[in-house]
Write a structure and sequence with these properties.
It comes from Streptomyces lateritius. With about 150 residues, this protein is mainly alpha-helical. It has helices at about 10-30, 35-45, 55-60, 65-75, 100-120, 125-135, and strands at about 80-85, 90-95. The chain has a single domain, classed as Arc Repressor Mutant, subunit A (Orthogonal Bundle), CATH 1.10.10.
């Protein structure tokens, strides 16, 4: 008999989609440039100093091609730009434009409101426990045992 219990990765994926859908709909309602979930994720992993496309892909867990497409869509929208990497003539750094900084600021504020709404729905203690569990270092993923388990 198969259990209907969903595994933790499925539940975490649903939670992520809840925040993404709330964020994207709130940004759209505020008149911000529409972005895809992949582009929103890219914004979340982009650091202020600038980040290469390869590093963005690694942080997002996607292919370099997927990250490259998301970057170029955001460049075309005027939210990101590319600059030469002072450490390497072959690499380019991806950074937010002024408009991208404004949009990022809006997104941060929206995510804070969504977290407050979640706390109102499921309880502040539950949200605090969830945050604590997710902020606790998990260590590297386990390696398979020598017997394949």
């Amino acid at each position: 008999m198969q259990s209907n219990r969903r595994n933790l990765p499925q539940l975490l994926g649903d939670a992520r989609r809840w925040f993404e859908e709330g964020l994207l709909s709130a940004l759209e309602a505020a008149g911000a440039m529409p972005v895809t979930p992949t582009q929103a994720q890219l914004f979340a992993v982009l650091d202020d100093r600038g980040t290469t496309v390869s590093e963005l892909a690694r942080r997002m867990g996607v292919t370099r091609q997927t990250a490259h497409q998301a970057v170029h869509g955001l460049i075309a929208a005027g939210l990101l730009d590319q600059t030469p990497d002072p450490a390497s003539a072959r690499r380019r750094l991806i950074r937010r434009t002024e408009s991208g900084e404004r949009t990022h600021g809006q997104a941060v504020a929206i995510l804070e409101r969504l977290e407050e709404q979640l706390a109102d729905r499921i309880g502040r203690e539950t949200v605090a426990a969830l945050r604590t569990a997710l902020e606790t270092p998990w260590g590297p993923p386990p390696s398979p045992a020598p017997d394949g388990r």
